[in-house]
Design a protein that fits this description.
The structure holds two protein chains of two kinds. Chain A is mainly α. Chain A has two domains: 254 residues, no CATH class; 92 residues, Serine Threonine Protein Phosphatase 5, Tetratricopeptide repeat, CATH 1.25.40.10. Chain A has 19 helices and three strands. Chain B contains three helices and eleven strands, in the order αββββββαββββαβ. The N terminus of chain B is likely disordered. Classes of the chains: A mainly alpha, B alpha+beta. Chains A and B meet through α8, α9, α13, α17 and α19 of A and α1, α2 and β7 of B.
């Protein structure tokens, strides 16, 4: 709590009084203001930097699908004013953000945890509303000194771990406002509610919408991240879920059904689920990694990489019973692909630790025969030497 | 307002001076000594010793001692005393690859080494930094009691890495626990 209070104090130093609300781009009174044009140019520069940074998850088919869903949510005249485009960022944190020029970025972390297209539509509609309702320009107008603001964001969020402070360095100033610090409670609520109306209008089932925030809540709880910073979690998540549910109840029959779009969504995101599980494993989030791989196994039950990953999760976590489970998973991976080197290394390590030199030797030798140029070949040769002693 | 910011930053970051490097340097609080490369500059804190010749963005040698009970910066995985050096190297690779500013990481080599009689590892890897610069790095690591020592060389792949690699290996070979 103390940390949250300190962060509030620091941010409030750099934020001025609230500016007047701008009419959304859908309004008759709408016109682009001068500072907004500059913000667009800056957004384009930051967008270009992100796109060539190596952060982007390159999957043209998935990208086309995400953009197709995004286009379903907005009428053509809005798309003429803001040419929305969606890209995916390789990052296991649950987040998404939009630049004012319509560049929307969705993290692999949040996509991997969604269940269907209706949840995806909820997220995209929310982020697109930040752009159509010009939230970033209003927020940036409130920041008196952008350089000082960014310095404080990087220093204060660095303590959250998972590279949150570092992410602010990469995203640039507009990206940081959109992705890291989020918007006021009013703006987030507006994006939720306008977004929900777009979801319904596009024919999606709005009852799926609050479930997106349940995934977010589960993640925050497991990560022990305090609200309200990051993920634009003003207002607090439970309040947000309650708002959605109340809105759906009031919405009448039109809000009680619609497209879920599970099959297509799962088909398009399956590889991403596996990749994100790898990222979660590297970050030491064993629980999320395991859930991710199991979800992937449900989609592709004969992919050896999935069983190898399950083996790695169990071996590295090393809790009671994990080592035996790891062995089973590695063997299953080998059963699906006998020429797959990595499970042999995993088995070699386990047997080496258990003092079973002959078994260890057998698997390490297989590993090296399948991948003689492996980056850790010298290490494995050292293990083999010890096994022969 | 600027004063508030300055105070915040100074309190958070501290301020360590750059000193010309020459001769043997004993980092008492970190319990090691090294032979410093002449013509380089040194900055030391209670957490690390940093050396550079042309600026930290172009090349740096950083020697850190981490308490294995403390969390790593980017991964929740922990280094444990019972781990093989190979397994420690895996954790370090995962910590590096979970760093948001390390892009397109490629581990080139993970080999066993002996650091003054203690089994350890040598990792070589490449990545792009957040400015898009191609960086090559080497990390020697080993465990001594509850301390993980990491002797790390990072340099721009173009020109600097090859030019200063021998200097780095010289610093590594001179490394001694006190």
């Amino acid at each position: 709590m103390k940390k949250t209070a300190l962060l509030f104090l620091l941010f409030s130093v750099f934020l001025g009084c609230a500016t007047a609300n701008l009419p959304p781009v859908t309004s008759q009174d709408f016109y682009w203001e001068e500072d907004e044009r500059r913000l667009w140019l800056r957004s384009e520069e930051e967008e270009a930097a992100i796109n060539k940074s190596g952060l982007i998850y390159e999957d043209p088919e998935l990208e086309a699908y995400l953009n197709e869903v995004a286009r379903k949510l907005q009428p053509a005249d809005i798309l003429d004013k803001i040419p929305f485009s969606v890209k995916v960022i390789k990052n296991p944190m649950l987040n998404a953000f939009a630049f004012p020029n319509g560049a929307v970025y969705v993290h692999t972390g949040i996509l991997a945890k969604m269940d269907n297209e209706a949840q995806l539509a909820t997220l995209l509609a929310h982020e697109m509303t930040h752009a159509t309702h010009r939230h970033t320009v209003e927020q940036v107008r409130n920041i008196k000194n952008m350089t000082a603001f960014l310095a404080v964001v990087q220093v204060s969020l660095g303590g959250l771990g998972g590279g949150v402070g570092d992410l602010a360095t990469l995203l640039g100033s507009i990206g940081t406002v959109a992705a890291v610090t989020g918007y006021s409670k009013e703006k987030e609520t507006e994006a939720d509610m306008v977004g929900l109306a777009l979801v319904v209008k596009a024919g999606y089932d709005p009852r799926e919408s609050p479930k997106l925030f349940l995934h977010l809540k589960e993640f925050l709880e497991e990560e022990d991240i305090e609200e309200p910073f990051f993920f634009g979690t003003h207002p607090r998540l439970q309040e947000r879920i309650d708002n959605y549910e109340a809105f759906i109840r009031k919405g009448g029959p039109g809000y009680q059904g619609g497209i879920k779009g599970q099959e297509r969504f799962i088909q398009k995101t399956s590889h991403l689920i596996c990749l994100n599980a790898c990222l979660d494993l590297k970050a030491g989030r064993f629980g999320f990694a395991e859930k991710g791989v199991k979800k992937y196994v449900g989609i592709k039950p004969d992919d050896p990489e999935a069983y190898y990953l399950l083996g790695e999760i169990c071996r590295q976590r090393g809790e009671e019973g994990d080592i035996e489970k790891a062995k089973e998973h590695y063997h299953k991976a080998i059963a699906f692909a006998s020429d797959y080197p990595e499970p042999h290394k995993g088995l070699g390590l386990i047997h080496y630790r258990q003092g079973e030199k002959e078994l260890s030797k057998k698997h390490f030798q297989t590993y090296l025969s399948l991948d003689p140029q492996a980056y850790d070949a010298l290490y494995v040769q050292e293990f083999l030497k010890h096994c022969s002693e | 307002m600027r004063r508030i910011l300055l105070i915040c930053l100074v309190l958070t970051l501290g301020c360590a001076a750059w000193i010309p490097a020459k001769g043997v340097y004993k980092a008492q609080s970190l319990n090691f000594s090294i032979e410093q490369p002449e013509g380089w500059m040194r900055q030391g804190t209670t957490e690390y010793v940093l050396l550079t010749k042309d600026g930290v963005l172009l090349q740096n040698i950083v020697i850190r001692r981490l308490d294995i009970d403390e969390p790593l910066k980017n991964t929740k995985k922990k280094v444990q005393k019972s781990m093989l050096p190979f397994e420690i190297a895996e954790v370090i690779v995962d910590d590096i690859s979970s760093d948001q500013t390390v892009l397109n990481l490629e581990v080139v080599e993970n080999v066993p080494v002996n650091v003054k009689g203690i089994p350890g590892f040598r990792l070589a890897y490449k990545h792009n930094n957040d400015d898009g610069l191609k960086i090559k790095s080497i990390i020697y690591g080993f465990l001594s009691d509850k301390w993980l020592y990491l002797i790390n060389y990072n340099a721009a792949q173009r020109h600097y890495f090859d030019r200063d690699i021998d200097t780095f290996e010289g610093v590594f070979n001179s490394f001694k626990l006190l």
